[in-house]
Amino acid sequence: MSTQATAPAPASQAPQPKTGSANPLVALTANLRQSGIYIAFVLVVALFAILTDGQSLAARNVSTIVTQYAYVLVLAIGMLIVIVAGHIDLSVGSVLAVVGAVAARLAITYEQPWWVAALAGLAVGIVIGAWQGFWVAYVGVPAFIVTLAGMLLFRGLDYLVLENISLSGFPQSYQDLATGYLNGLMGGYGYDAFTLLIGAVAVAGFVAQQLRTRRARIKYQQVVEALPVLLLKIVVVGAVVMWFAWQLATARGLPIVLITLAFLIMAYVVITKSTVFGRQVYAIGGNLSAAMLSGVNVRKVNFWIFVNMGFLAGVAGVIFSAYTNGAQPAAGTGAELDAIAAAFIGGAAVTGGVGTIVGAMVGGLLVAVINNGMIILSLGQEWQFIIRGLVLLLAVAFDVYNKRRSGTR
Amino acid sequence: MTTTSSTPSSDVILEMRSITKTFPGVKALSDVTLKVRRGEVHAICGENGAGKSTLMKVLSGVYPYGTYDGEIVFEGQVARFSNINESEHAGIVIIHQELALVPYLSIAENIFLGNEIKGRGGLIDWNRANGEAGKLLRRVGLKENPTTPVGQLGVGKQQLIEIAKALTKDVKLLILDEPTAALNDNDSEHLLGLLRQLQAEGITCIIISHKLNEIISIAQSTTIIRDGRTIETLDIAAGEVTQERIIRGMVGRDLESRYPERESHPGEEVLRVEDWTVGHATQDRLVVEGANLSVRAGEVIGIAGLMGAGRTELAMSIFGRSYGRYLGGRLYKRGEEIQARNVREAIKHGIAYATEDRKKYGLNLIDDIKRNVSAAALEKLAGGGGLVNSQEEIAVAEQSRRDMNIKAPTVMSVTGKLSGGNQQKVVLSKWIFADPDVLILDEPTRGIDVGAKYEIYVIINKLVAAGKAVIVISSELPELLGICDRIYTLSQGRITGDVPIAEATQERLMALMTLERIPVRSGAPVASGGATVGTSAEAPAVPGAPQQSEQSRSPLSSQNPEDLA
Fold this sequence. Notes:
CATH class of the largest domain in chain B: Alpha Beta
CATH topology of the largest domain in chain B: Rossmann fold
Helix content of chain A: over 70%
Radius of gyration of chain A: 23 Å
Function (chain A): Part of the binding-protein-dependent transport system for D-xylose. Probably responsible for the translocation of the substrate across the membrane.
Distance between the termini of chain B: 65 Å
Oligomer: heterodimer
Subcellular location (chain A): Cell membrane
CATH architecture of the largest domain in chain A: Orthogonal Bundle
Shape of chain B: globular
Membrane topology (chain A): Multi-pass membrane protein
Low-confidence stretches of chain A: 1-16
Order of helices and strands of chain A: EHHHHHHEHEHEHEHHHHEHHH
Pfam families (chain A): BPD_transp_2
Number of helices of chain A: 16
CATH superfamily of the largest domain in chain B: P-loop containing nucleotide triphosphate hydrolases
Largest sheet of chain B: 6 strands, mixed
Mean pLDDT of chain A: 86
Largest interface: A-B, 42 and 58 residues
Radius of gyration of chain B: 25 Å
Shape of chain A: globular
Keywords (chain A): Cell inner membrane, Cell membrane, Membrane, Sugar transport, Transmembrane, Transmembrane helix, Transport
Number of helices of chain B: 19
Mean pLDDT of chain B: 82
Structural class of chain B: alpha/beta
Strand order of the largest sheet of chain A: 1-4
Structural class of chain A: mainly alpha
CATH topology of the largest domain in chain A: ABC transporter involved in vitamin B12 uptake, BtuC
Strand content of chain B: 15-25%
Number of domains of chain B: 3
Strand content of chain A: under 5%
CATH architecture of the largest domain in chain B: 3-Layer(aba) Sandwich
Strand order of the largest sheet of chain B: 6-7-8-3-9-10
């Protein structure tokens, strides 16, 4: 009654599913920003397969890549969140070292059980995260400075704990955290059936998730991929996963660290996509002022971002010390750069607000495959540094170019 | 020499012919014509958003040649500036309202920034630069040392340094955009005196100002712009031009049926603001002083004020003290005092604020519609386990898209690519989803086209019909007159009027909006009836300062904020 106005009537829309282009090529180029990294990954894998005469794809090497670079991927998860919020963390290499040092001191010098050492390592990571979070969020010192200071500070603590000498000789139970395998749980004929089963479950889960998303999107009249594109995607992912599982099954079985990693990835995909905290991270990175004026408690979110980074640096520290079977004063030097590179190569925006966990993981794997391939090729350190530097530069240049072309800024 | 058909007595230095400037979806200038005679002070008048600043940006090359239609003739030559350097080279210098000085650099460094005096070997000759700067400072009437950092000076002196900087560039045409908006009476008087002096030296001036008395006292002629069109040019030098005459030109448009009708049924009072006082975010002055206002359920109130009057500052300060320094004041929600010390508390108490600058403060432009809609009330979508229900989120956004008629293919569309009107609808959706009792809408229709404006008005009507209280801040008086039940006027940080719609006219509002404070010559505290917190506490800060004519602009001594808080 009170509104006599005749508003322009909302256009009545007939609900019908909207599909994107059925042409996979068009779908790819339309979304080059996301798919670019996958294409690059495939190309790099193929390149090294050719250069190494297939050695890089050998079962044992695939298994090694996972165990050797798992710690970088764990760091990259935390780093992605830090970067999306518009910060950076330069200290994770040092944090990883001090975590390993504390764990080694407890497990080796004081002969504590493996779980005491591991939990103490995580606790050290969390405390360090809270320390850095305090300075960034509540004092307002830029993260670059706080973590640059932390890089020196925690390297120093690492030296203190280790008294400047390496410790080695973890108990086997601790080493298993990084280099243990589940093998023969269900038997197998020269391969581990359990690993294959896990692979199959993963593929089934992926298919179910894709179909559920598709159904929901159709229900809400969103654009969905054309069916052939979806099927192609499922076939490709399924083939890659099963091939990967086969390689593991014929090598040493399912690495325990892969289970840890898979659990973390799944958990953090949910955290970044579906929790209030995760969504506020993107809001802060996308437009700090708008987030503040929407009632986001920016300080609290920033604080927890760094606590989380500390926790994951703790996990990475435990895995790294378990993998190297000891703690060295110089452990993890430069690890922060690999983690940062992984996030950026995986499509995170330098300006914040953009990036996905899955992207960072692929970015991390890309770095891992390149590093691993260069080692197989026995490339000198000098060339390894040069190539890693160029890869990072080109990846971010690609991102900047894409952004300018799409004109979102 | 090459000037064509101009009589020698009224030598025209600048002529802008049929300037049309279009932004995506908005025609900012349409066939604007401006003629400025050599040696005069020419004022440009118009409401906020009429197109004054756009016109000046076209003139100074901020919008390069080719991005507008029409022709600029300067000094008899057709000018095609592709950037600000070229227009400065030709002798056109613009001084923006937002001063472009680097606070940490010295006066001399600022004056010669980008125009450094080079000595031997290409190095800067600072001795000469400081000497030249000293001469320029004397010319604009300043006695400061050229090595003093600019940040240590007041706004008035900074303004003069901008002018000194312009003088280094061999300026022929000086454009001042709202030069006195942030100045007190003394500084304004000084600045106007300087303009007269420059005029005597042969420099032509274009001045944009809302202070009509100033315009009449200094300008020889004025061009009035409204809705991106030239309305008329008045000859002030010939006399007979009054403030009322200019106001009529500025606002003279009929209301038509641009506004949907609404029956007003105000209910109980929802929000009352008492004695609200806010300090400037970075400078030591008050931007809002002792403001009182109230709004009832089902009521739309307007806040009218000129640029710099403190409208946005007041609104943002009420919204969880998100602007400047809170120096005092109380909030009452349905009669009970509430605390809204941060944005979260404000939202919890049912207050929402939709910003005037949606790109900067309102939206995450790189994210999609649904996530922007849910941004202020994400907790509402988080079910058990704290996980955001993304299906429900899509449903909510989809509902908003239909209700608000947001024109976007899906709610997954990135907000940065929407038109202004649709972006505004996303901002409104965000706050409507937060389900507030009071919505403060700051310039809700700025920069959006007429059709979308109408839709926004319809949304406002729906909100009040649902029992919400709405506060609209707008620079467009017809808009306030078209949609409000009551209009507060704000002038220089103080509420100068509370006008029921039945008694409101544009002329009356404009008069209240330009009401300046009566100068206090005696230095005695302003104690007329109910002295506000701001004035009573401030009075001791200026004992025996008879020169201090305007207390609201006087710097607060450092201990005062504590007294007030």
